[in-house]
Each structure stands twice: as C-alpha cells, then as structure tokens.
Amino acid sequence: MDFLNSLDAIVGKIGAFAWGPPMLILLVGTGFWLTFALRGLQFTKLGHALYLALIKRKEDSDEPGDITHFQALMTALSATVGTGNIAGVATAIAVGGPGALFWMWITGLVGMATKYAEAVLAVKYREVDENGEMSGGPMYYISKGLKMPWLGTVFAVFAAVAAFGIGNMVQSNSVADAVEATYSISPLITGIVLMVCTAAVVLGGIKNIGRVTGFLVPIMILFYVAGAGYIILVNIADVPAALVFIVKQAFNPTAAVGGFAGASIMLAIRMGVARGVFSNESGLGSAPIAAAAAQTKTPISQALVSMTQTFIDTIIVCTMTGLVLILTGLWSSGDTGRS
C-alpha cells in the first residue's frame, strides 16, 4: 500500500508539471503565434477544410499515401472524441466552473492552427517504410527537419509511454467504469473485450485502422451529437442564457466541487486549457502520425483536413457536452466520471 501511495504521489507530481502553467502556456502560446503567422487561416479556410474532409473525401489512386483524407481524420478523431469530450469536460466544469468551457473554446480555436502546422510537417517529412506504407509524425520531422535524430527518438519513446497514460488506460478505464455502473459487468471482462477488439483493428495496419475508423467513428459522433442535440433542443429557450453564463463564469468562476467555493480565474483557465488540450491533442503530436498516411500530393490539403479535427472535437462536441451539463443543472453535482 505504501508503494502504491508513493507511486500515486510521483505520478501526481509528474502530471502537475505536465499539465501545469508553463507547459500549457507553451502549447497555447504556440497556437496564438501560429494563428498570427498563418493570418487566421483556421477561420478563413474552415469552410474549404470541411469540404475536403467531409464532402470531397475520396482521393485519386495515383496519389501517394495509404488512407484517404477522411479516413486520416477519422483515425485522429477516434483517439480524441471520447473520454476527453465527456468526463474531461465534466471534470473541467466541476473544478474550474462553467467558465472553463470558454477557455476550452479559446484553446480549440488557436489549436486549429497548431494542428494545421503539425500536419504540414508530417506530410512533408514522411517516408515509405520497409512494408511499403507511409510513416511520419513528429519523430520524423524533428529528426529530418530540425536534424536532431536524438530528439526524435526521445519524442517517440515518450509518445509511446503517453499513449498508455493519457490514451489507452484513461479511455479503457472510463469505458469499464461506465459499463460496470450501467450493466454491472466486471471491468475485467470489459478490458478483455476491448483488448481483443483493439488488437483485431491495430494489428491489421494503418489501412485496416483507416477502414474501421472511417466506418465506426462517424456513427459514434452522430449518435452522441444526436443525443446531446436532443437535450439542447428540449431546453433551447435557455441556451442563450447558458452561453452568457459560460462567458461570465470565465472571468468570475464558481466551481461545482468543494461546497461551491469560489474558483479562481486561473483555475478556470488551467482546467479549460488542460482539458481542451487533452481532448483535441493539438500540439501533443499524435494526430500528425495519422495525417502522414493520408493520400495526398501536397501537405496543405491534408493539413486543412487535420485542423477540422480540433473544430469538430472541441468547438462542436465539447460545447454540446458542456451545454448539456449546464442546461440540466448536472454541472453542480460534482460528478465527473473517471478521466
């Protein structure tokens, strides 16, 4: 027990540093700088980006790559739309108050520029591996672009570790918790089922992953948006007041946890930014790995598609989650789910 307590304390300190103000300032600050450098491209080109991602979709077979723009987008969304949009938003609002959602919006809007830049580099510096498939991502453009192979290796190692800490373990734990609470099914059984299903998809390679996510992820998002949309429509008259409430709370926050003790603005910002980054992963380097496999001759087209991931994830899905929590009054219950 002492060992577990010590391990928990160490992990807590690492997490506090990783999601602390310095790192968040670097991530979001980069997003603001890129927004300025790219002249607000995420706003002026959003319509065209959504067209490429959701309407054009199919690519010419002679273009290099393994999966379509749409499949690359869905592969990236499969890792972001989920726990971060549900338990993550609930946690941010419970601790930082409803105003945390406002700071999630800010993070998402500037994060779109970061996501664009990541994808441009991923496609530009990708290469064909020994199996004839495209490989790319931060470890490639750090090694080749910055000419720092050692730093690319460091990123790859930490990314693999993080895939468990903020990815697989968090997602599977939340799923197991929800299934146990709803259907009284043992987390062990849920874990085994998830392991088998994940192996069946992942071991098939990027093309198999693209096919599966291209089919399942749109269904998942549509079902979630439909459910949340129904609740919002039922309470549509209260939506304007809820939006005003969110903006006011961003600068004069009230936390749901701790007997409604007043939450500081810094706490609201920190929770909103941290959960926003956790949800859309802008700047974390995971999405560019999927973007590098897209069928395209130019980095720009895939980069435009990639930035819609952050828009869909944070601006649409997270907003709907936050509105549901606020409109139903559940934000003040202190329940967050396990994230």
Automatic annotation (TrEMBL):
Gene Ontology, cellular component aspect: plasma membrane
MF terms (GO), sorted A to Z: amino acid:sodium symporter activity
Pfam families, A to Z: Na_Ala_symp
InterPro entries: Na/Ala_symport
Transmembrane segments: 16-38, 149-170, 182-203, 215-237, 249-269, 311-331
Topology of the protein relative to the lipid bilayer: Multi-pass membrane protein
Subcellular location(s) per record: Cell membrane
Keywords annotated in UniProt: Cell membrane, Membrane, Symport, Transmembrane, Transmembrane helix, Transport
Superkingdom of the organism of origin: Bacteria
Keyword Transmembrane: yes
PANTHER family given in the database record: AGSS FAMILY TRANSPORTER, SODIUM-ALANINE, TRANSCRIPTIONAL REGULATOR, LRP FAMILY
UniProt similarity note: Belongs to the alanine or glycine:cation symporter (AGCS) (TC 2.A.25) family.
Protein name: Sodium:alanine symporter family protein
